[in-house]
Amino acid sequence: MAKNIFKVGTFNLFNLALPEERYYNRRYRKDEYDRKVKWIAGQLARMDADIVGFQEVFHLPALQKTLAMSGQYNGASIRMGERNGEGPAVALVSRFEALDYDVFVDFPEKAILEFNGTQVPITQFSRPVLRAKLLLAQDTIVNVFVVHFKSKRPKLPDDVDPHDPRESAKGEARSLMIRAAETTALRHILMDTLENTNYPVIMMGDFNDDGSAVTSRILCGAEPWRKLPTEAKKRLWDVHMYNVKDIQARQSYRDVYYTHLHNGHYDSLDHILVSQEFVRQNPQRLGFVEYVKTYNDHLIDETLSDDRVPFWESDHGQVVASIHLERGIPGQW
Known about the structure:
This protein has 333 residues and is of the alpha+beta class. 25% of the residues lie in helices and 34% in strands. The chain has a single domain, classed as Endonuclease/exonuclease/phosphatase (Deoxyribonuclease I, Chain A, 4-Layer Sandwich), CATH 3.60.10.10. The chain is built from 6 helices and 16 strands. The chain is globular and about 55 Å long.
C-alpha cells in the first residue's frame, strides 16, 4: 500500500538536557525532566510528522527517551549534530531511510564575508548545521537541512550594562551580523546542493528572524524579475527556496502563523523551506505543499496575562508541513 502524503516538522525543544546534567547555568531535577519529556512526547504524537528537525538538544539520550515515549518512531533514524562548546545542537529523526549525514561547522571559504578588504571575523556556525540525505521512495532522494541561527539576544561584552540602550543597540547589531554571516554561508552550501541537480531540498529550523527579514531573503535567494527571459528565470527557480508559510498564506484567507511570543510581539521564527520540486506551480514538480499547521496554543502573551509558559514546555510553537507527492510512497510504518 502506498501513501501520497508525508509530513515534515520543526521543533525547538527549549533546552532538552538530561536530569542533573548542567546546561547553561542550571540543571533539571528528575521530576522536572520527566515532565519535560512527557510534554514533548505528547506534542510529537500530535504532530505525527515523518521527519522532524530539532533545536536545543544537549544530550542525545534525552532525545531518544522522548522519541520512545511518543510511540511514533520505532525503527526511525535519529542523528544529533555537533555541540559548539557547551551550547546545544540540532538533531533529526526520520521514518525514511537515511543514506548519509553531514555536519557543517565551518563556513565555506568563499562564503566568508569581507568589507573594504577586511575579513569579518565570523567563520563558523554558532550551532553546526545538520544535513541528511533521505530516501523518500525507490527513486526519490531529498536533502534535509536542520538549522538554528544566532538569537536576537544582544551579544554584549561582560563589562557593560545590559540595560544601557546604546550598548543594547550595538549588541543587537552584533547578533544580526552573526545571523547574516551564517545565512550567507548556508546559502553557499545550498547552492552546491540545489544547482543543476534533481534532488529536492527541505530546510527547517529556528531562524531567529521573520520570513521576510534580510537574513531569510539571503537564505532563500531572489525570485526572478518577471521580465527576465524564461531561461534566466529557470536558473533562478532552480536555486530558490520557498517558505511554506508564504505558500500557506496564498492558499488561505487567514494567516495565524506565529511561533514565538516576546514582550507582546507575535513573531515567526521557526520555518520550513522547500525547493521548487515541492511547489505546486512547477509543472515538473515531484509534489507540492498541501497544508501547514502551527502548534502554538501553549504560548502565552505575558504582557496581557499573569500566566507563564512552564519551563518544561517549549517557548516556541511547532510547525508541520504536509507535502503531497505525485507518486505514492511505499507504506513501511
